[in-house]
Amino acid sequence: MTKDPVLVLQRTRSRKKQKLDFYRLALGDKDIRTALYTCDAFIELIRKWQGPKLPYEVSEAFFAAILVSYSRPFTENNFPGLLPKQWRRFAGKELQETHDEMLKNRHSLFAHTDAAIHRMTIIPDDVCRKV
């Protein structure tokens, strides 16, 4: 009688490793749910918005919260560490591209100041004097 290799693998892992994997998954679940609930709140705000245009700062704050929360389980951290590779790969090409784009935007837009993304022109005061 042959044993299922997955079951054998699970039995050979230490209890400590199993606890750490479970902890990573539980935190990852919390972070992704936070991103999902923030998306729902943002959609609800857009539906109810009465002004002419949603302020940029408000939409940027929602995007930051969504991207940072979603990305936490997939980026380096001190503890508990990254989710295992099996949880970072998606079967569908579109899902994988969306996941990769979310991580890229988290890194370039919100986690780090990237001069190529956050372009700025500084104009000295004396150039824009009122006439």
How would you portray this structure in words?
This protein is mainly alpha-helical and 131 residues long. It has one domain (12-128). It is 59% helix and 0% strand. The protein has helices spanning 5-12, 15-48, 56-71, 93-111. The longest helix has 34 residues, at 15-48.
Residue windows where pLDDT falls under 50 for at least 5 positions: none
What is the tally of helical segments?
4
**Helix content bin:** 55-70%
How does the major sheet shape up?
A: none
Proportion of β residues?
under 5%
- Helix/strand/pairing category: mainly alpha
* Secondary structure tally: strands: 0
Question: In summary, what is this structure?
Answer:
By secondary structure, this protein is an all-alpha fold. 59% of the residues lie in helices and 0% in strands.
Secondary structure elements and pairings:
Elements: H1 5-12, H2 15-48, H3 56-71, H4 93-111
Helix pairs in contact: 2-3, 3-4
Key features of this structure:
single chain, 131 residues, mainly alpha, 4 helices
